[in-house]
Specification:
Blueprint (H helix, E strand, L loop, with lengths): L2 H38 L9 H17 L4 H68 L7 E6 L2 H8 L4 H10 L2 E5 L4 E6 L1 H16 L1 E6 L2 H21 L3 E4 L6 E6 L1 H12 L4 E5 L3 H8 L4 H10 L2 E4 L10 E5 L1 H17 L3 E7 L1 H22 L2 E4 L17 E7 L1 H19 L2 E5 L5 H5 L4 H10 L2 E5 L4 E5 L3 H16 L2 E5 L6 H5 L4 H11 L2 E5 L4 E6 L1 H17 L1 E6 L5 H5 L6 H9 L2 E5 L4 E6 L1 H16 L4 E7 L2 H8 L4 H10 L2 E4 L5 E7 H16 L3 E6 L14 H8 L3 E5 L2 E6 L1 H15 L4 E6 L2 H7 L5 H10 L2 E5 L2 E6 L1 H18 L4 E5 L2 H6 L3 H11 L2 E5 L4 E5 L4 H20 L1 E5 L4 H6 L4 H10 L2 E5 L2 E5 L3 H17 L3 E6 L5 H5 L4 H10 L2 E5 L4 E6 L1 H21 L1 E8 L1 H8 ...
Antiparallel strand pairs: 1-3, 2-3, 4-6, 5-6, 7-9, 8-9, 10-12, 11-12, 13-15, 14-15, 16-18, 17-18, 19-21, 20-21, 22-24, 23-24, 25-27, 26-27, 28-30, 29-30, 31-33, 32-33, 34-36, 35-36, 37-39, 38-39, 40-42, 41-42, 43-44, 45-46
């Protein structure tokens, strides 16, 4: 059989076997997946013997069928049979599953064996196919194929392979062999016929023996070698056996690889080459000719002349941009060929400008004239597109076009002659008409409509020269030219033009709805066209001369009836003109002068249109309204921003009311706090007075940051500074470190001065306002008068434009102020006076508005001085005005004293009068029609008459009587406060609910103060007395004195087991109390119900005696002294007790031990108390367990650091949290506020936690007393106790703890 046919047969068999293998593999995978799923669904293996189950079932069935039994027994029997049947079914199902699984495993094994056999057969067949394929590829018989190995040094292996296997591929192709590189063995396996394999091996060995030599070449030589697809380089390489020549890209070096003798021959051959280079210069267009389309021309030149041609640059103006490389003869021939090629293909271009008419001549009739000239001359003609088309509407003519003639010089000359001849013949048939430029648009018509009609009718070419107002008509038919001329002149006669001056103001009116009748008459009836000239905003009319005259008359009549004037107003005056609806200034002007008045908001322009004399009168009236004149005044009044809204009123109600009352116009200027008043001078003056008084009587709210911590307590409800500020008719409310002040502006400023005085170490500041003329009279501060005042008072005095400022301590300022008043009375003479009115009247009788009214009536200025409690009166006029002012002040004082009363009350009455959020005090004000304010412990009442005052007094007395607060203080047993309050305050909450009233912890937690009604206080006293009696009964205390440490240890027992047993047996609490440094013996305290304590007393005494007896026996054996004398025995005893390591046991606790002689002994509590060991309500520091020496040092150091720092609890939030957790929360104060003068008060604060600016911490309580370590801490303590490590004081917990009333500790 033929080799190729055999190969194809084996390949077909190989493909069949591979397909069969894939099919078996798929079956294997499917069965394997099913088996895995089978494993997942394996049922539980049943227990027991199925035969026994069946025998048991048969036995039970027989019993059921043959035995009479109760229904219940029969049901139980049936259930037993069903259960056994179920077990039998499970057994059957499991064995069925097991059989199925075994069958699947067997099939899977068979498939696996089949796959292995199939793989072996395919592998053998693949080897046979591969050998046959090699025989076909190498063109030999399979039996002729041999395999030879050749060793290749590692350094030459890559060279033999070549780049991307090029050398190997070349050897395989050349010798018809297959080469396999065995890199791991550094060998190459060559397969093929014996002769071919030997030749391939020789070639490989030549490569391994070859060397590389690199020589530098001139660029011309490189180009010559690479020209024509490196023909010369390949020719040299072919002529010399076993050599390789290569030139890297963009390089002028030649690399030669081969035997040294062959390399020498190659070098001689290259050196013998006669290579020359020639350089030519061409334009980019000429280079394009040389290169040709796709480089075809230059390739043909290189092939024809055996040279290398390279374009060095294609830039315009570049020299020597073409290089020719080759032999001298070949280069010369190539040079001549290129010169001839460029010369033959040189193309010239010339341009000509032609008009639009000439352009149409050449391009009409599908450019027939163009084609004719090109055919006759042989040149190429091109007409450029118009850069600017003619625009009939704007009158812009078309721009000239450019004609380009391209060809040889002879062709261009012939074409130009033919073009000029055609133009000359065309111009001979043109007729020119000169018309007025205004008629040109009409001749053209809308969108060129008219000119197109004439052209179509006459078949003539009509061209319009806008610059010269010429019309050119061209046609070979003279009749058609004449007809076109007549049509154009007819259009000119019917389109005479005249411009009517209208202007920007009236043009929109003429073109709008108002001017529509006039426009209709001119256009429809008269027959004249109208057009707007946008640049001048005038109107152009077009028609016959007669019709134009009639249209002009119509337009002028319309303009006279619609005379228009624009008047610009300030932006802030627009609201004045437009406000008032139907009664606005704009509406009134329009009605009064029968004009159309319109306000343009965007431009702030007022347009008035109508008959000219009426329009001018309206303008005069508008100017008077805006700027005043003829008895009308305009006055601007600046108002503080915070009261501007109140002056305007809701929806402008307040302003509208004043406008109606005073018959004026008031407008609020936009984006400013200015009111503009317009009207008669008297009315405006009265309105200004009313506004100023209203503004002066408005109270303000201002918040001031209190930076000095020492001032904060003074601002409390009973603080001195609080009362001072309150006496100035200012309500202070302290929120954290911010103080909110409410009152009249100057009163608030006085309160701020008081605050500054306290914050600046007593520095006080007073300002005395003066007018400019008064400042000049009092002289400079350097004058002798002022120096005497400064020396006498020791205060600082400065004089500025606004008045005098005095600073210093209060007594210094008072002295300086009194002397200043005396000096004013001397130097200002009749322009200054002082009225002593007293502190109450200063804030109660005179509001800022009252002082302003007196000043208005008397031409004076009045100011209050809180330091001297008087009123200052000054004027720029004289004695008469001062006298009037003092008289008005006295009258005001007399009327005020009759209508003002002060009621003194106790502290509890203040919140009663004010009520929650000021509800009560506001209700009193409303019912009595009196002004009521709370000033500390005084209630100030002011009314309109004496009857109202009496009514208010009675209402207040009744209110206080109904809400009188009773109080009593009840002592509690020591240590009972925690129990009294209860966990989470549960006990005290129940007590409050049952009795009512308010409970406060007082006297460092040893007593409770109850406030409320008489009934509530009585109920509370009775309930508390009963509770105390019960508590004493349940908390009977007996102390066993003078108990030695050995007796105490015996009571405690090993790990507290003895004390726990005693506590559980007798239901009592036992505390072991160590003695102090002087009295070494301590005590044992028993607490609980009296009968239980008495029962336990003998047992405890017995245990104490036994413990002391054992101690005496040990001391006798060891030769040591007693507890008070010897040291060794005592130290040994202390080590056994492990007191010092703070070890905790369940239900008991052993504190720090005696340790060294002379250390303080600590109190050890081993009880498990029901409530907190430190009673809540006790003052910080009242419970102080004794610490070790190291712990005491650390505690003292920390306390010193806390005292040195500025703040203890750094934030109000921190203080509030400790107040909440540690002490009874304070009663919250009532806060009253409102726009109508509501007072703001705070209730008296609760029991202070912070003392001297910081919270005094409690020492860390012993473990188990109010603070329980977590499980890890307990485990660690137990381990340390077992090790006996009781001497390490450095691990003491330095954390400070605060013990809460509810029985838990707070760590800070």
């Amino acid at each position: 059989m033929d080799t190729n046919a055999l190969l194809e047969t084996l390949k077909a068999r190989q493909a069949t076997w591979i397909a069969e293998r894939a099919e078996v593999s798929a079956q294997f995978k499917a069965l394997d997946a099913r088996l895995k799923l089978q494993f997942k669904q394996q049922p539980k293996r049943p227990t027991g013997d199925p035969d026994k189950y069946k025998a048991e079932i048969a036995k039970l069935e027989l019993k059921r069928n043959t035995t009479s039994m109760a229904l219940q027994d029969e049901k139980a029997l049936i259930k037993q049979i069903e259960k056994l049947s179920q077990q039998t079914k499970l057994y059957t199902a499991f064995h069925a599953y097991q059989a199925q699984t075994d069958e699947m495993k067997k099939n899977l094994t068979a498939l696996r064996e089949g796959l292995k056999k199939k793989e072996a057969a395919i592998s053998e067949l693949h080897h046979a196919v591969d050998r046959l394929q090699m025989a076909v590829d190498l063109n030999c018989k399979p039996s002729e194929i041999v395999e030879k190995l050749v060793d290749v040094p590692q350094a030459y292996l890559a060279r033999v392979i070549g780049k991307s296997g090029s050398n190997i591929k070349e050897i395989e192709s050349k010798f018809k062999v297959r080469c396999d590189v065995l890199k791991n063995e550094m060998k190459i396996k060559v397969s093929g016929s014996d002769e071919a394999a030997s030749s391939a091996i020789d070639s490989i060995e030549n490569i391994t023996l070859a060397v590389d030599v690199t020589i530098d070449l001139r660029k011309e030589v490189v180009n010559s070698l690479l020209s024509n697809k490196a023909a010369l380089l390949n020719e040299i390489q072919t002529s010399l056996n076993n050599i390789r020549l290569s030139i890297p890209k963009k390089s002028n070096t030649l690399t030669i690889r081969g035997r040294q003798d062959v390399i020498d021959q190659a070098i001689e051959r290259i050196k013998s080459l006669d290579i020359h280079a020639a350089y030519l210069t061409f334009t980019p267009r000429e280079l394009g000719i040389v290169i040709g389309k796709g480089g075809e021309t230059i390739k043909e030149l290189e092939a024809a002349h055996n040279v290398k041609i390279e374009v060095l640059s294609r830039s315009e103006g570049a020299a020597d941009n073409l290089q020719i490389v080759g032999s001298a003869h070949d280069v010369e021939k190539a040079n001549n060929a290129i010169e001839l090629l460029v010369s033959e293909n040189e193309v010239l271009e010339e341009e000509m400008e032609v008009t639009q008419a000439h352009r149409n001549l050449f391009l009409s009739d599908t450019a027939a004239v163009f084609k004719e000239i090109q055919k006759e001359s042989g040149a190429y003609l091109r007409m450029s597109a118009n850069s600017q088309q003619s625009n009939y509407k704007s009158g812009i003519p078309a721009a000239p076009s450019t004609m380009t003639i391209k060809g040889t010089r002879a062709q261009i000359s012939a074409a130009r002659t033919l073009v000029e001849a055609k133009i000359e013949a065309y111009e001979a048939t043109v007729t020119t008409i000169i018309v007025d430029s205004s008629a040109l648009p009409a001749i053209i018509g809308k969108g060129g409509e008219n000119i197109k009609i004439i052209r179509k009718a006459t078949k003539a070419t009509i061209e319009i020269d806008w610059d010269a107002s010429k019309i050119r008509i061209q046609s070979s038919d003279d009749d058609q030219v004449q007809k076109a001329k007549e049509d154009i002149m007819e259009i000119v006669r019917n389109n005479q033009v005249e411009i009517i001056a209208v202007g920007q103001t009236l043009l929109p009116l003429l073109l709008g709805v108002t001017g529509k009748p006039v426009r209709n008459k001119i256009i429809d009836e008269i027959g004249v066209k109208m057009e707007v000239i946008q640049e001048t905003r005038d109107v152009k009319v077009r028609g016959t001369k007669e019709n134009i005259g009639e249209a002009v008359v119509c337009v002028k009549e319309f303009l006279a009836a619609n005379y228009t004037t624009m008047y610009e107003v300030a932006a802030e005056d627009t609201s004045l003109l437009l406000g008032g609806g139907a009664e606005s200034v704009i509406k009134l002007l329009a009605d009064k002068f029968e004009c159309d008045v319109h306000m343009q908001r965007d431009t702030n322009m007022v347009r008035i249109r109508g008959v000219q004399d009426k329009v001018e009168a309206a303008i005069a009236e508008l100017k008077k309204t805006i700027h005043g004149g003829d008895g009308i005044v305009v006055e601007d009044l600046k108002v503080a921003e915070n009261v501007m809204g109140k002056v305007i009123g809701k929806g402008g109600a307040k302003i509208s009311e004043m406008e109606t009352t005073h018959k004026i116009k008031i407008s609020a200027l936009q984006k400013s706090n200015v009111l503009r008043l317009r009207g008669e001078e008297k009315n405006v003056s009265e309105a200004v007075r009313e506004i100023l008084v209203f503004v002066a009587n408005q109270k303000v709210n201002e918040t001031v940051a209190v930076e000095d911590p020492k001032v904060l307590p003074m601002l409390a409800a009973k603080g001195g500074l609080f009362k001072k500020i309150h006496s100035r008719a200012v309500t202070p409310v302290l929120k954290g470190e911010n103080l909110r002040l409410r009152g009249y502006p100057e009163d608030v400023e006085e309160a701020k001065r008081l605050l500054a005085e306290e914050s600046k170490s007593g520095i006080f500041e007073v300002k005395v306002a003066l007018d400019e003329c008064h400042v000049k009279k009092v002289g400079a501060v350097s004058s002798p008068h002022w120096q005497r005042i400064i020396d006498a008072s020791k205060a600082s005095v400065t004089i500025g434009e606004a008045g005098i400022c005095i600073m210093g301590r209060r007594e210094e300022v008072v002295t300086a102020l009194e002397q200043t008043h005396a000096f004013f009375q001397f130097c200002l003479n009749d322009q200054f006076a002082k009225a002593d009115v007293g502190a109450a009247a200063l804030t109660g009788a005179f509001t800022p508005g009252d002082l302003l009214l007196i000043g208005f009536d008397t031409s004076t200025t009045l100011t209050r001085d809180f330091v001297t409690e008087c009123l200052f009166v000054r004027t720029e006029k004289g004695k008469e005005e001062i006298g009037k002012a003092l008289e008005n002040i006295n009258l005001k004082l007399q009327s005020w004293s009759k209508l003002h009363v002060t009621i003194k009350v106790e502290d509890w009455a203040r919140p009663v009068i004010i009520g929650a959020k000021g509800v009560t005090i506001n209700k009193l004000r409303e019912e009595t029609k009196c002004e009521i304010s709370v000033q500390g412990t005084s209630i100030e009442v002011s009314g309109e008459d004496e009857e109202a005052i009496e009514k208010a007094k009675l209402a207040i007395e009744k209110l206080l009587e109904e809400n009188k607060v009773w109080s009593t203080k009840l002592e509690l047993p020591k240590g009972s406060m925690g129990s009294f309050i209860g966990k989470g305050g549960a006990n005290i909450k129940v007590l409050k609910a049952e009795t009512g009233g308010v409970y406060d912890v007082v006297d460092d937690g040893s007593a409770v103060e109850v406030k409320g009604s008489e009934e509530e206080v009585g109920k509370a006293k009775e309930a508390i007395d009963k509770w105390v009696e019960d508590w004493n009964e349940k908390n009977f205390v007996h102390v066993i004195e003078d108990v030695s440490s050995s007796g105490q240890s015996a009571v405690i027992g090993s790990k507290g087991d003895v004390v726990r047993g005693l506590q559980e047996e007798y239901k009592i609490r036992i505390n072991v109390l160590r003695g102090d440094a002087e009295e070494r013996n301590g005590s044992v305290e028993l607490t609980g119900e009296k009968v239980n304590v008495e029962n336990a007393l003998e047992a405890v005494k017995k245990i104490v005696g036994e413990g002391e007896e054992r101690e005496r026996e040990r001391s006798g054996r060891g030769g040591a002294g007693s507890r008070g004398g010897g040291g060794g025995g005592e130290e040994e005893e202390e080590k056994k007790k492990d007191w010092s390591d703070g070890k905790e046991t369940e239900g008991s606790n052993e504190g720090e031990g005696g340790g060294e002689e002379g250390d303080e002994e600590e109190e050890v509590k081993v009880s498990k108390p029901q409530y907190a060991a430190i009673p809540v309500g006790a003052a910080p520091g009242s419970f102080a367990p004794v610490l070790s020496k190291a712990a005491r040092k650390r505690k003292n150091k920390k306390e010193r650091q806390m005292k040195e720092s500025e703040g203890g609890l750094e934030s109000e939030v921190g203080r509030d949290l400790v107040n909440m957790l540690v002490f009874q929360p304070p009663e919250t104060g009532a806060e009253v506020g409102g726009e109508e003068g509501g007072e703001e008060e705070e209730m008296e604060e609760g029991m202070a936690v912070v003392k001297d600016g910081r919270l005094s911490p409690l020492p860390r309580p012993p473990p188990g007393l109010g603070f329980t370590p977590n499980s890890k801490a307990r485990k660690r303590n137990d381990e340390e106790a077992e090790k006996g490590d009781s001497s390490n004081d450095s691990d003491e917990d330095e954390t400070e703890y605060f013990v809460s009333r509810s029985g838990f500790s707070v760590r800070i």
